[in-house]
C-alpha cells in the first residue's frame, strides 16, 4: 500500500486478502517479529564492536602518540565522522568539570611553564637576584601590593627587595603553588594563574603562612622562557618580621 507507483501498488481489495491482514494472529506476528529480532542483533553487535574499538584507541593514544594507529581507519568507517579525543579536567577550586582537548605537545608545554614558574619563585625565596634576572625580561612589568597600585617596569624596583630583604642569610622560606592553570597562546607565549602560599618563621620563631594570587605572562625567546608581566594580589612577597 506504500508503493509510490500507483500501477505497482496493490488495491484495497488485494490488501484485505493479504495473509498479513486475514491471518494476522499467525502470520504477521511471526514474520515481523523475527525481522525485528534480527535487526536488533545486528545493531547490538555493531555497538559492542564500537565500544571495543574505542577502548583500544584510547590505549593506543598513549602508547603511540606520534604514529597513527591502524585501527583509526576501521574506526572512521564505523563511527563517521570521528570525534577528537577529549579529557575531563576537574578543578578542585570551583568544582566545575570542563572538557579540554589535550595533545602531547600542549601537555609538555604546560609542564614547562609550571616548572619555569617554580624556578622563578625559588630564586625569590633564595634571594638570588642573578637567577631572577635571567628568567625575567629586562622590561618586565608588574602590578603588585608593594607598588601601591602603580605599574612597575624593569628590575630596579625588585632589586631593592633582593638587596635589603631577600638576602641569602635570611630564615628559610617555603612556597607552594596551588591549582596552577596554564593558557597557551600560540607556540611562544603562555599565561599561568595560581595561588601562592608562602611559609616562613617570624621574628619570634613562630611559623607563619601568607597567601597571594598571581598571574604571570611568559614569552619564549631563543628557546628560553622569560617572564614579561605579572599581577599579584593579596599578601606582599616579602614575609613580615
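^ Assign residues to that structure.
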Amino acid at each position: 500500500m506504500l508503493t509510490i507507483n500507483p500501477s505497482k501498488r496493490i488495491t484495497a481489495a488485494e490488501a484485505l486478502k493479504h495473509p498479513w491482514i486475514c491471518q494476522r494472529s499467525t502470520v504477521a506476528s511471526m514474520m515481523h517479529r523475527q525481522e525485528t529480532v534480527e535487526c536488533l542483533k545486528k545493531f547490538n553487535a555493531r555497538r559492542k564492536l564500537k565500544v571495543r574499538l574505542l577502548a583500544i584507541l584510547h590505549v593506543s593514544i598513549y602508547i603511540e602518540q606520534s604514529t597513527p594507529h591502524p585501527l583509526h581507519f576501521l574506526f572512521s568507517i564505523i563511527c563517521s565522522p570521528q570525534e577528537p579525543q577529549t579529557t575531563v579536567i576537574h578543578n578542585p577550586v570551583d568544582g566545575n568539570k570542563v572538557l579540554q582537548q589535550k595533545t602531547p605537545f600542549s601537555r609538555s608545554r604546560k609542564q614547562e611553564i609550571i616548572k619555569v614558574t617554580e624556578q622563578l619563585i625559588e630564586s625569590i625565596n633564595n634571594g638570588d637576584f642573578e637567577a631572577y634576572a635571567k628568567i625575567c625580561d629586562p622590561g618586565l612589568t608588574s602590578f603588585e601590593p608593594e607598588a601601591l597600585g602603580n605599574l612597575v617596569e624593569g628590575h630596579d624596583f625588585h632589586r631593592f627587595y633582593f638587596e635589603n630583604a631577600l638576602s641569602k642569610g635570611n630564615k628559610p622560606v617555603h612556597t607552594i603553588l596551588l591549582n596552577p592553570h596554564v593558557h597557551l597562546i600560540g607556540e611562544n607565549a603562555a599565561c599561568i594563574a595560581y595561588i601562592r602560599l608562602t611559609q616562613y618563621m617570624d621574628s619570634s620563631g613562630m611559623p607563619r603562612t601568607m597567601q597571594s594570587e598571581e598571574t604571570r605572562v611568559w614569552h619564549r625567546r631563543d628557546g628560553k622562557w622569560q617572564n614579561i608581566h605579572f599581577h599579584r594580589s593579596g599578601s606582599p612577597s616579602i614575609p613580615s618580621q
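The beta strands are 87-90, 97-100, 136-143, 152-153, 173-184, 189-201, 207-221, 224-234.
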